[in-house]
Each structure stands twice: as C-alpha cells, then as structure tokens.
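step=encode ok
step=design start
structure_in=
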C-alpha cells in the first residue's frame, strides 16, 4: 500500500474545478487562514474535525487534544459508525466497553456463537482463532441473514431476518431460564437486575421469535440447548449487530445472554467483539470522539481539569478557547450526522452556527450513509479539506469548484507509534519506510496546523518536537500520565518495545511471558495495565476474571454506578478476586476510602504531594519529577502552604466529576440526555447510585448491606461520605474534603491504584454487572422495528421511538416509520464486507493484486426473487431506496434469503449510474470503481450513540 502509484503525491487544491499542485507552506497557510476567518465569524464549533481509526494511538490522542485546543467537541472518527453501540452497550453492562477476552483464548471455548459477524471475510486472521476453537471441539453457531464463508464452517447456521436480533436473543434467554440452565450463583453474586430481564423475555416464546425473526422454534431451542450444554462459550459479534437504530440494545442483549450463562470472566467465554482493523480500538480509547476526552473521561468540568493538569494548561485558558463553558461540556455532533450539522436550519442546531468547514482526515466519505445529503453538504460548506494517503471518494464526489484541498498524509508504514487491537493489546510499530513523495506524517501535519493556528507552544509544552515532528515516544509518555481510567498508564515505550524484541518468549495461548525480561507480562500489556510503568503490572488478558489477583491480571466487575440504586445493592455479593483483603463487594477507590481503611499510610511522600495538589487545585507538572528525598522535605511545607493558598483564593477547585460519557451512553443535553449516567469521580449528587430514595438513605449502612465484612462497610461509609445525596454540587468543601475526594481516576501519582492493588483490590471497585440500565431510553433491551420496515404488521407493538432532540440536532424516528414505503420498496437491503477490500476501499482498490480478485461492485439477489423479477445473473440492475438508486451487477445466489438483498460497501467512483472517476486527480484513480452502497442507505440512528443503520433498510430491484 505504501508504494501504490495512486497515492496522493503532493498537496493540491481545486481552482475553477481543476486540481492544481501547491506547496505544503501554501496549503497550510491558505487553509489555516480560511479556518481562522470562519472561527472568528461563526465560532470554533463551525469547523468539523473528522479523524481516523487508522491513526496510531499517539496521533489519535494528539488529534483529540488538537480539537480541544481549537475549541470544539465537533470531532469524531470511524468507530461512531462501526462499534459505538458496542462501547455504550457493553460498558453499561460490565463497566468497560471492550472485548473481554483474547483472540487466542477462543481455542479454549466449548461453544462459539457468532451473531452479525463474518470473520472469514471481515477478520480473516481472527477467523484462524475461531477455527482453532472448532478444531478443539467447540460447537460453532453462526447467526446471519446471509450464508457467508463463515457460516460454511458452522455446525448450525441460523438465517435471521435483518434487524430482529433482540427477539432471537431473548428467545434463547427465555429457554435457558425456563429450563433452569442459567448460572444461578453467578447471577446472584455478580449481576444486578436479572428479574426485570425475566419479565421482559417472558413473551418471547419460540413462536414469537419465529414471527419476528423468522427462525423456526425447533432451531431456537436447539441453539439454546447447545449453548447451555457447552460452557464456557464465547459470543462474537461485529457490525451486523451494532449498525442499527437499536444497536445499543442489541449489544446489551448479547452481553446479558453471556451473563445468564455465566460466561463472562472465564477462559473460553467472553463477549468477543471484533474491531475492523488495527486501531479502531485504540482511536476509540484515546478519545477521537465528540463526547469524550482521552480514556473515556467525559466533558464535565472535572474531566477537563484532569486533562488540563496532564497538559500543563490552565483550565481558564482552555475554557476561553470554546464558544462557552456550556459548549465545552456539551457533546459535539457525531460524524454520522455531519451533513445535518451543515444543512439543518440554524434555528434547530444547538450551537451558535452551522458547520462551515469540513475536514476529512483519514476517513472515507463513502462509509457514511445518505449519499445525496452528503453531496449537498459538500457543496454547501465554505471549505473542504481531505488529509489522506489517497484522494478518497470526496475528490470525485465533491461538486465545489474552489476551496477544496487534498493533503497527502503518510501511511501507517511511514511512521512510528503504537496501536491497540480488539483484545486491548497495545503493540509498538516501527517505521518501515520514510514518507514517500511529498507526504507528511499525521504528527507533522498536526503540529504545522497548531503553529498556524497559534497554539502550538501551549499544546506541545510537554511533548518533544524534532523539527516539525512531534516524537511518538514523548506523546505516549503523556498518554501514560493521564489515562488512569482504562489503564493505559503502564505501557510506556520501553515496555512495548521490549515485548516486540522478545515476542518469542510469550506463550501463544495464554499470551504470558515465559522468560526474562518479559516473564509474567501478558503480550503487549492488554489494558488495563494498572499504575505506573515502574510498578510493572502485567496487563489484563481476560476482563472480570476473579480467579486471579488484580496484581496478576484479575478483575471483578466495575463498581461504576455507585453502591446502590433505588434501595438495591449494586455491589458484588460473596464474590471477589483472589487475594482481596475485602472479601465482598466494595466501591471505587478514593483517598477517603484509603484513610478510612488505614491504608493511606502506605502512600509515599511524593504520591501524597501529588494527591494534595490534585485535590486542592495546586498541582504542577514538576511534582511528577520529584525524588523521594526532595518530596519528604517538601511535604510538611506543602501541607501548610495549601491551607494558606486556599484561604486566599476565591476560585476554589471543587469540581472533580469525571463523567465517562461515551461508555455511559451519554447523548448530551446537559445532565438529562438519554443514557446519561454521571460517573462522578470525586463527588456529585448521583455518585451513590443515582436515584436512591430518601427513606433508604436514612437506614444505617450496616442494615443496607447486611452480611458484608467490616472492611467493606468501612469502604462504603467512606464512599457515601464523599458522595452525599443531599449536598448541592456547588457547596464549598474544606481542604480535607477536597483531598479525600481525589480518586483512582484523577490521582496523577498512581498511588491510590498502587495501594489498592497491594491490598488485593481493583482500583475501580467490585460491583455487579447491570442487566438493567436505568440511564438508557430502554431500561431493558427491546426489539423495535427499523425505521424503514416491510413488516408493517409488527407495528405498533414493536414501533420505534418518538422524535427528539439530541447531540445538538433534531433526530427523527416515528415521523419516518409512520410513513409506509413498503409497497414501493418491498425488499430488505443489508450490507457488509468483502475479504479483498477494507473500509471505503481507497487503499485496497488501488492495490493491483487485490483489484484482480474483485473487479466490480455487485448486489446479491436470491434465486427466487431473481426468477420473479426477471433478473439474470451478471447483468446490470438498479437498487432503489427511498433516497436514490445505484446501478450494479446482479449476483443471483441462495446466500441471501428470499426478500433480502446484499451490497458490499467498499466501492466508490460511480454516482447513481454515472462514472465520476475522471474527477480524481491525474494518476489517482483506483484500479476498481463502483457504486457506493451508502449512496442509497437511508436515515436511521441509534438512540444512544447515533450509530447509523446500514443492515436493515428497504429497497426494490429494477432491471438495468
């Protein structure tokens, strides 16, 4: 790919409709001048920064930081439209929104069920691990509307109606519960809210599953029995489950199925979620998102102050970069809706002005739905900039004659940095070749724009810059200083490089190092790797595994929702990790909790200095460089100074709320948006569980948590003292109270994490997984029909949501579904991947070897439908939807069922029957062109994350 002839070779701009070569200096100068003019006239939110899932971790982090210094949360990347519903659904079930086990661990599974995934084509290397599991005796079940190459290997193939996954999963859960096949001990000890699930699934008889999902009753029973009799089992899903208006409900239902079976936290079990390529996970973790800062810290004041401390930037300075404090703390507009951010009536947009400038930085426009609206938005913006190794579909699609720029970014083979795979392993990647032609690395392009915008000195004050190139290792060290929530703190460059140098010393199944110098480490330190690099945590290969100590990579479920909700205990009961000194559930760690347990004496003087600084707002970066001798000398002096400084200051830093917004499913709207449950790090009204009733709060803690050991009660007391239900958020706190509220997420010393792990505790507490998510629009997952459905008979029983406002924009649900399009468009359209191509296809369709294997775009049509419609194999047909039509070759096949058609999504260069490939710059046309599926994919977005619907819309087939 790095040597492809179709690479962009130098910067270009469009002048009177023609591409013209320009220099880098001219490009940066002109683009920055235009953007600064737009910023001055319309505000910082009028520039949209669309980033990439192909960034290194360091660039992903740098890009989110760059958007913050520009002054906007209108920043996003590919994960919004591939796995955002996974992150929201799984995080709100277990605590973290990521794959729980490892690829290698699949060979230990007794059963493998794949729902909405086709790894044989979409994740071919991952498929090898699946086949290893099958060779070891695992029963393999594939649930998919198509009989795919993956399904060919299955012991049981289940053809499902597109969009009907929740009904099928609930049918499985009902059978398991009705027969007493659930893991009762696991549910009692480690899961909250299962009784509401029992009530919800009661109606999902095998007959109702068949009516909604199209699956025969005997097959549903057979699948349920197979899963129950072959444990531990793994559940794998991909975008077939996630890309839906109820994607967050689908991923939660899948998670609940695994909880009911007791398959979480066990070797051979897990919710194994395959990401599309090598840094979708990392770019998500490092915050290229419109509702989080890096490491899933949200957008509340406390989260901003945390990152300002890490960056060495004054919070007040950062706040002034934004249009207002409200906009600074409000989620931006998601990439799936960027065209609405441009085209929507300004009166309906909850920011001062619409988006006027759009930057595609490593993102394919043809991977986004509603092609006609995208085309209109591209024509409307005042400035359009593409930064990419290839010109992408934008170059051919954009109708603008001027103010369009193409900047050549180096490929991933042309830079240093780390990447994170689906199973959370962080791997260092060295540069293979120097940037070709006139391309530049993302690091350098970011730095050049920061200089042109005037904030480079502030943004890079703690990052080493070599010439115009920020140093990847230095960026990673800054990442290590701030990402305490998910444990990216121990993976410094030295440890990652050491693993790459000694790959031969790791066991290929357990992934654990067998020999020095990596003995005991897990390969590539899967997060969370707790504490500082010096503490040498080995990483966590399997999340929520209580059979190991936390120091050895074990974990309970996360206590991220407080200790109780509406009078019900949210902490684990009689379940804890190996070696835990609290042999029951306990809340997340704070200084107050360490004090109450008598463990704060274990902190070093340096850790105490940093914690005092964080708690009182006097932290300075040079505290991180103190040696212990100096720290001991300064500690007494600092403690006396703190009291004096706070007394003289009217601006006391009392807000430490750390809302992990995306993982909480935050949809913005202040604190009241759908799915917004505040993860209050150091205080706040919702910290003790959100909505506990007052009468329950009056009862003694001992009565509310009977049978808990004394240390657990002490920890709960300390947590409730730091998170009182009746204290206004704005109430002033004493210095001591401020310090006691510093917690494991905001302690920049790592001391809280170190001490808790030394006592056998997980820094984030020991809670229950949630089967019921009170902060989502649907407390329990429900089947709702797609907005465009041919099954009008299932309405209104399974109708969608009411229209609403969220993410700064209005969003439509019922107003679309209430219109019957099914007579005109009687077939279901779904889409997916091919093994030959990746993503938008710009790189892979420009590879001559891959192009040879797959030379044209096509639509799969069932043989019965083809006969009825008079469609002949390998002839052109039109695929029409309510928003447009595309012309493609027909592939008549029984892979798809009657009434369903399938389109791959990697193509571009055609537009509704017209060849537009002559609009690419000279020499940049891919070898293969074709219609983009998303030209005709219709409106539809997940209620929690704004994931686009691409798996279940409607269409008709016309002879072409």
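sequence_out=
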């Amino acid at each position: 790919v790095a040597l492809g002839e179709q690479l962009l070779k130098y910067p270009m701009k469009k002048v009177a409709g023609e591409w013209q070569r320009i220099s880098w200096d001219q490009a940066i100068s002109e683009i920055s001048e235009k953007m600064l003019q737009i910023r001055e006239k319309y505000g910082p939110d009028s520039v949209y920064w669309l980033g990439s899932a192909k960034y290194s971790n360091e660039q992903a982090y740098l890009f989110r930081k760059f958007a913050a210094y520009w002054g906007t949360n209108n920043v996003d990347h590919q994960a919004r439209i591939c796995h955002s519903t996974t992150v929201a659904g799984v995080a709100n079930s277990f605590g973290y929104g990521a794959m729980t086990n490892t690829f290698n661990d699949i060979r230990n599974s007794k059963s493998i069920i794949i729902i909405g995934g086709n790894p044989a084509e979409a994740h071919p290397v991952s498929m090898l691990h699946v086949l290893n599991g099958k060779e070891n005796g695992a029963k393999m079940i594939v649930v998919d509307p198509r009989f795919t190459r993956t399904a060919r290997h299955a012991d049981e193939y289940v053809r499902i109606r597109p969009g009907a996954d929740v009904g099928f999963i609930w049918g499985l859960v009902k059978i398991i519960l009705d027969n007493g096949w659930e893991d009762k001990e696991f549910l009692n000890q480690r899961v909250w809210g299962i009784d509401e699930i029992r009530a919800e699934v009661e109606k999902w008889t095998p007959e109702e599953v068949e009516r909604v999902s199209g699956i025969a009753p005997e097959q549903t029973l057979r699948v349920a029995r197979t899963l129950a009799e072959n444990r531990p089992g793994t559940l794998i899903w991909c975008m077939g489950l996630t890309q839906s208006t109820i994607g967050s409900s689908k991923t939660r239902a899948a998670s609940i199925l695994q909880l009911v079976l007791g398959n979480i936290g066990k070797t051979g079990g897990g919710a194994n979620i395959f990401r599309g390529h090598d840094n979708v996970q990392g770019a998500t973790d490092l915050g290229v998102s419109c509702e989080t800062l890096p490491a899933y810290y949200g957008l509340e004041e406390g989260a901003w102050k945390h990152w300002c401390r890490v960056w060495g930037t004054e919070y007040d300075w950062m706040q002034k970069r934004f249009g207002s404090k409200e906009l600074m703390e409000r989620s931006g507009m998601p990439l799936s809706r960027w065209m609405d951010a441009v085209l929507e009536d300004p009166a309906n947009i909850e920011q001062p002005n619409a988006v006027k400038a759009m930057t595609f930085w490593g993102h394919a426009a043809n991977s986004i739905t509603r092609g006609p609206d995208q085309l209109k938005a591209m024509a409307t913006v005042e400035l359009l900039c593409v930064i990419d190794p290839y010109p992408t579909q934008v170059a051919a699609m954009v109708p603008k004659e001027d103010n369009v720029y193409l900047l050549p970014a180096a490929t991933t083979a042309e830079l240093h940095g780390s990447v994170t795979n689906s199973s959370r392993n962080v791997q260092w990647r060295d540069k293979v070749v120097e940037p070709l032609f006139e391309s530049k690395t993302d690091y350098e392009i970011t730095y050049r724009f920061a200089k042109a915008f005037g904030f480079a000195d502030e943004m890079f004050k703690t990052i080493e810059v070599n010439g115009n190139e920020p140093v990847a290792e230095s960026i990673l060290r800054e990442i290590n200083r701030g990402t305490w929530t998910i444990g990216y703190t121990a993976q410094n460059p030295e440890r990652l490089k050491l693993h790459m140098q000694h790959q031969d010393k790791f066991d290929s199944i357990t992934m654990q190092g067998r020999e020095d110098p990596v003995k005991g480490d897990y390969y590539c330190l899967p997060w969370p790797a707790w504490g500082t690099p010096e503490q040498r945590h080995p990483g966590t290969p399997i999340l929520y595994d209580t059979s190991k100590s936390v120091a050895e990579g074990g974990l309970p479920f996360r206590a991220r929702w407080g200790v109780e909700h509406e009078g019900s205990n949210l902490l684990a009961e009689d379940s804890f990790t190996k070696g835990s000194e609290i042999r029951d559930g306990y809340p997340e760690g704070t200084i107050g909790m360490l004090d109450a347990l008598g463990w704060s004496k274990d902190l070093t003087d340096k850790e105490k200095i940093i914690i005092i600084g964080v708690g009182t707002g006097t932290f300075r970066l040079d505290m991180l460089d103190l040696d212990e001798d100096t720290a001991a000398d300064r500690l007494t002096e600092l403690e006396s100074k703190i009291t004096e400084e706070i007394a003289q200051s009217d601006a006391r830093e009392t807000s430490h709320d750390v809302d992990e917004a995306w993982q909480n499913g935050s949809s913005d709207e202040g604190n009241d948006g759908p799915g917004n449950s505040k993860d209050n790090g150091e205080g706040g009204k919702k910290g003790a569980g959100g909505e506990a009733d007052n009468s329950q709060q009056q009862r003694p803690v001992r009565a509310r948590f009977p049978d808990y050991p004394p240390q657990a009660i002490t920890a709960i007391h300390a947590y409730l003292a730091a998170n009182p239900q009746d204290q206004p958020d704005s109430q002033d706190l004493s210095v001591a109270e401020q310090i006691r509220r510093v917690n494991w997420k905001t302690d920049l010393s790592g001391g809280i994490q170190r001490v808790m792990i030394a006592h056998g505790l997980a820094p984030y507490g020991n809670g229950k997984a949630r089967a019921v998510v009170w902060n989502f629009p649907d407390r329990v997952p429900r089947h709702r029909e797609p907005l465009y459905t041919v099954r009008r008979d299932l309405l209104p029983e399974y109708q969608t949501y009411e229209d609403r406002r969220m993410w700064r924009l209005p969003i439509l649900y019922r107003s679309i579904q209430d219109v019957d399009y099914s007579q005109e468009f009687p077939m279901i359209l779904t889409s997916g991947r091919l093994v030959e191509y990746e993503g938008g296809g710009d790189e892979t369709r420009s590879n001559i070897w891959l192009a040879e294997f797959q030379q044209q775009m096509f639509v799969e049509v069932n043989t019965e439908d083809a006969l009825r419609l008079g469609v002949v194999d390998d002839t052109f047909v039109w695929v029409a939807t309510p928003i447009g039509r595309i012309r493609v070759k027909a592939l008549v096949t029984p892979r798809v069922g009657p009434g369903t058609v399938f389109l791959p999504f990697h193509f571009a260069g055609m537009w509704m029957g017209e060849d537009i490939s002559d609009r690419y710059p000279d020499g940049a046309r891919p070898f293969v062109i074709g219609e983009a599926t998303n030209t005709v994919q219709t409106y539809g977005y997940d209620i929690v994350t704004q994931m686009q619907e691409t798996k279940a819309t409607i269409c008709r087939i016309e002879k072409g």
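step=design ok
step=annotate ok -> The first strand starts at residue 12 and ends at 15.
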